Amino acid sequence: MLAELSVAPNPLILDASPGGGRPEKVPSETQVNVFVQPSTDEGRYEIDVIDIRDGQQSFNLAPAIRSGLQHRNEHGHRTLPSLLLWDERGLKLFEEITYTPEYYLTNTEIALLEAHSREIARQIEPGTILLELGSGNLRKIRILLQAVEALGKRLDYYALDLDRRELERTLGQLRADVGGRGFFRHVRCHGLHGTYDDGQVWIARPENARRPRCVLSLGSTLGSFAPAEAAAFLKTWAGTLLHTNTNKASSAPSSSSSSQILLGLDGCTDAGRVFAAYNDRAGTNRAFILNALDGANAYLGYEAFRARDWTVRGEWDARAKRHVQYLVPLRDAQVTFLHARQHRHQHQSVTVKAGEKVELASSYKFDDADRARLWAESGLRVARQFSSKDGSYGLSSLSLITTATNISHFLD
């Protein structure tokens, strides 16, 4: 789940293969549309997850781990890549976080979907590809899919996430929750194993581009990005949805004019409420953040970090309107990079002083003014806006601006 804490130093170019190493090359025949359908055994159903990763691209977070500890960011902190959070255990821990009483974001968004899912479903055309970025445990999307099903609209839902086993588990749970063996009659559900980058390539394929498309980002996932990064991210996805329509070399018909983005975004700046959400009394957030150290060890291939020597510190930055999660060593921690011995001119180890904050993840909050700037900078406009009672949380249906000027802006 690429949820609200899922930012990385360059999230648009990173793939994820928990455990590190080179992902297996993916044969092209595995990258086709496959439905959740009965198996040959009576009463059993296959959960089909399509591997859309770039099989030619190696992936390992070890270089980002080394670089982040050897250098400091614009805030003066050493860093670790937040993709370390999203291994199989991390995804399950985050799911637990969404059930804690302090984590208001999930319940707020669920309430909005329960109140407005039917109206949202009416605006989704039959035949749409519904692609959810960082799908997680599917609690929220289930509400919208049930509304679509009730209207008798046929569409294909694709859950995009980084961990294949979690996709299989959550899609299986979705099937059980909505009726077991019958599943949906009109909505067909699929898993996509890959990153945001892989998802962009996949949804731009001619067979997908000729259909209406709706990209969903729920849970304030976009809050993982600083405002400028968030605008660039949205602009990239809007450009992807527009691309086929603006590519004259393509003979495939496009449905970009009926494509849209559905985005959940938090704007709460109540310091106490925000702090509690990311620092729950039960300690689930703490376990979630510390798990990143185990992920780092997995990518490095040895124990460079001992979790018992570290603690977690959450801080609310009122000026930047963001909550930050730091890893802090309880005593001086020497992190050794074994393979650096091959390069005598590079540091073989880094010492992180006791009490020094290592930045892992940020959660930015976007108020009404921030959102207006975000839409303007990303080339989107609000078609419909659904807000919480206090106005702090918004669920926005965004349409693509397809004027000649805007198209030129995307293609530059």
From TrEMBL:
Record has Transferase as a keyword: yes
PANTHER family, sorted: ERGOTHIONEINE BIOSYNTHESIS PROTEIN 1 (PTHR43397)
Keywords recorded for this protein, A-Z: Methyltransferase, S-adenosyl-L-methionine, Transferase
Histidine-specific methyltransferase SAM-dependent domain segment(s): 64-398
Keyword Transferase: yes
The protein's name in its UniProt record: Histidine-specific methyltransferase SAM-dependent domain-containing protein
Database matches in InterPro entries: EgtD_Methyltrsf_superfamily, MeTrfase_dom, SAM-dependent_MTases_sf, SAM_MeTrfase_EasF-type_put
Pfam families: Methyltransf_33
